[in-house]
Write a structure and sequence with these properties.
This protein is mainly beta. The protein has two domains: about 120 residues, Jelly Rolls (Sandwich); about 100 residues, no CATH class. The chain contains two helices and 19 strands. The strands form five sheets. The chain has a five-stranded antiparallel beta sheet, with no helix packed on it. Strands 15-13-14-19-18 form a five-stranded antiparallel beta sheet. Strand 18 and strand 19 form a beta hairpin. The longest helix is centred in the last third of the chain and has 6 residues. The N and C termini lie far apart (about 55 Å).
Length: about 230
Amino acid sequence: MSAQETGDEVMEPRDELQVFRLGGIAEGSVNTDGRVVASSSNSRIATFELRRGESSPELRAQPDCEQILYVMEGECSLSCEAGEFLLKKDQGFLVPADVRYAVSNPANARAVLLLMRTVAPPDEQVSNTPSDLRVKLPLDELSGGEIRAHFELYAMTRHSIGVSFLLMQDWNEAALMRMHAPWEIDGDTLWVTIPQRFAQWYGLERLDDGDYRFVPDGTARTRGFIQFGR
């Protein structure tokens, strides 16, 4: 990352205590290109502005990166697979890893946002490695919505995994862990490969048909649970 000017100093990425100042926003010092106020090898804090009616291009939190958006001035609309959310001043949004989203300013005044990004060190990053365990699920119970490239697994309890093609905001907030899972369709059956991290967390060394059952959730046919045990 190139050096960014913050006030009278030049901010280079460094792993030490950094003091930053968010003053000057009301005077219009923030521009649409953003302003980095603190940066290290594992995190970045910046401010950026959205003018009246302006939208950002589609953004994406990287697989090893979570982002926090916080509205410092005005309001903004955040759109993602989970829906559209209107954020007002002093409200924020935690964007999980690998989620696509976009922000726009629907108001008649400018919006100023604080963007905080954290990245786990390489030796602590969780790789999404598939295991050799698969489950078969009823496709018609999960295809009520759009079939998408990613199939989501949510670790809800020690005995159940939430499953859906959709990013569910309520599950995302309640889950202990969420990961994408490889999938394929064979007739009316959806085959899903369990990620290695899920297999380890649930203590799964093998997985036969009688070891689990599918329980649909709701009537929209978009999500359900893998329940372990007989």
